[in-house]
């Protein structure tokens, strides 16, 4: 394709060529593919590039908003089409492309849940894969796509770490950090089916939970503003309320990327120590009122010391990269402990 007029080129052609020629190289290829699908669904298969006018773009944004997509998500989906059009123009395939005006970034997500709301969510009846999804998000404070993508090989039980960004995947602006492996998630690994993805439907990778989520939100009597990412924002809020340093919380959330030296910091036994301890305390506290979480933890929550519910005659026990210590709680396994 060379020097084509915008009125002679189908928008669907530009979008399809973008994904086939460039989409596979994108770290956020899944998001780009979803964006292409939404553009094609709204504009239709016969719309030309010239028809992507500002009024039509505004109608597109309104259409996306009516589907309950967040402002940030709408902006990302608009950006996919803009990138596809600009790429075609830069490569000389089209003589001119319309200007795609992205909506403003907007304010940070303002909501965080109460403890009662999180308890109601975790106690609500839900499919096994949705429970696994929220457990991963609760134990890592990760984003939804990172939770759905998480596979067993990304979890280093010996070092007690969860590599949210798998080897070979290029980092995006939504940085996926390496975070501590908490006992609740470690216990889930031992009891869950040995599928590659921790969040799966009969072994198949889960791409979205939107349909199930709407039913679950009503079942748990949660407000309309409560969306899955509310869990992440709530954890960040609770961690700061517990005095965890802002830098540690930022690292857990992937809001900053470490340099070359920091690559080795995660193997320090004290890596994210305040975050590890505070998250454990949060999960143990929730376990007091969430039987499924309490059973998974395998601890007597609320007792003067942390003990295993099962018979334990030895003073300490290593569990998936962590050590349960008689009256002191959890601590990371050092190389000496591993031996």
3D architecture notes:
- With 339 residues, the protein is mainly α.
- The chain folds into 2 domains: 85 residues; 184 residues, hpI Integrase, Chain A.
- It contains 14 helices and 8 strands.
- It has a 3-stranded antiparallel beta sheet, with no helix packed on it.
- Helix 1 packs antiparallel against helix 2, helix 1 packs across helix 4 and helix 2 packs across helix 4.
- The chain is elongated, with a radius of gyration of 23 Å.
- The N and C termini lie far apart (63 Å).
Topology overview:
Blueprint: H1 11-21, H2 29-43, H3 54-66, H4 71-90, H5 115-123, H6 128-140, H7 144-149, E1 155-156, E2 161-163, E3 178-180, H8 183-191, E4 200-201, E5 204-205, H9 210-219, H10 229-241, H11 246-253, H12 273-287, H13 291-297, E6 316-319, E7 322-325, E8 329-332, H14 335-338
Antiparallel strand pairs: 1-2, 2-3, 4-5, 6-7, 7-8
Main attributes of the structure:
339 residues, mainly alpha, hpI Integrase, Chain A, 2 domains, 3-stranded antiparallel beta sheet, 45% helix, elongated, disordered C terminus
Write the CATH architecture name of the largest domain. Orthogonal Bundle
Number of domains: 2
Bulk shape: elongated
**Spatial gap, N to C terminus:** 63 Å
CATH top level of the largest domain is Mainly Alpha
Calculate Rg over CA atoms. Answer: 23 Å
Number of helices: 14
Task: Describe the largest sheet.
Answer: 3 strands, antiparallel
Widest sheet, order of strands: 1-2-3
Helix content: 40-55%
| Main structural class | mainly alpha
């Amino acid at each position: 394709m060379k020097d084509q007029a915008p009125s002679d080129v189908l928008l669907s052609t530009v979008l399809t060529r973008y994904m086939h020629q460039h989409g596979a190289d994108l770290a956020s290829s899944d998001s780009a593919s979803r964006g292409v699908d939404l553009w094609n669904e709204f504009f239709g298969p016969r719309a030309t590039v010239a028809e992507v006018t500002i009024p039509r773009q505004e109608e597109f944004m309104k259409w996306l908003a009516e589907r309950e997509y967040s402002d940030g998500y709408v902006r990302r989906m608009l950006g996919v089409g803009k990138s596809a059009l600009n790429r075609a123009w830069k490569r000389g395939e089209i003589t001119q492309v319309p200007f795609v005006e992205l909506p403003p970034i907007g304010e940070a997500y303002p909501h965080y849940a109460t403890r009662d709301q999180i308890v109601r969510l975790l106690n609500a009846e839900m499919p096994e894969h949705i429970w696994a999804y929220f457990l991963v998000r609760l134990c890592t404070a990760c984003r939804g796509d990172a939770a759905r993508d998480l596979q067993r090989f990304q979890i280093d039980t010996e070092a007690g770490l969860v590599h949210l960004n798998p080897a070979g995947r290029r980092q995006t602006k939504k940085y996926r950090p390496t975070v501590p492996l908490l006992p609740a998630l470690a216990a889930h690994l031992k009891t869950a089916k040995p599928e590659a993805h921790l969040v799966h439907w009969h072994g198949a990778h889960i791409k979205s939970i939107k349909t199930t989520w709407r039913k679950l939100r009503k079942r748990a009597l949660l407000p309309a503003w409560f969306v899955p990412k509310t869990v992440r924002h709530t954890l960040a809020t609770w961690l700061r309320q517990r005095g965890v340093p802002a830098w540690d919380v930022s690292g857990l959330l992937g809001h900053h990327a470490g340099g070359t030296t920091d690559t080795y910091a995660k193997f320090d036994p004290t890596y994210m120590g305040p975050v590890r301890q505070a998250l454990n305390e949060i999960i143990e506290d929730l376990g007091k009122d969430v039987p499924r979480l309490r059973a998974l933890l395998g601890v007597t929550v609320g007792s003067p010391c942390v003990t295993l519910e099962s018979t334990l005659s030895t003073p300490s026990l290593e569990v998936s990269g962590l050590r349960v210590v008689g009256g002191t709680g959890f601590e990371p396994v050092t190389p000496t402990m591993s031996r």
